[in-house]
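User: Hey, quick favor. My workstation is busy. Could you predict this chain's structure for me?
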Amino acid sequence: MRLGDGLMPTEGVLGLAGSPGPPRPLDAARLPGHGHHAARGGYQQAESHTVCPILLTQPDADRWTPLGLSELVLRRVTRVPVTRVLLTGAGHYPLEQPGLTQMTEAILAFIGGLIGAERQ
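Assistant: No problem, here it is.
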């Protein structure tokens, strides 16, 4: 797979982490985007994604996966809404503050919007 191929995971977060619990902090091979999921071949073309809306919570201090790399794939998603939230002062795996709070608020707002849309 090359950068910009527009491939995205077909499984949920549990499939990305490879276990029902959160990945261990120092086990990089099990973190999303580090080959664990890609090795199983669970990818589809971004243009084909129609299952659900997408929320990108992008840390602004992420040196492993900068926003430009995420945009290579997300700009090709055209059949579902894509919401982007920049996490100020957060690194790659935002378990620290203020990124963790920002990510939590973004997720709750995203889900709240989906629930509100369903009720209308």
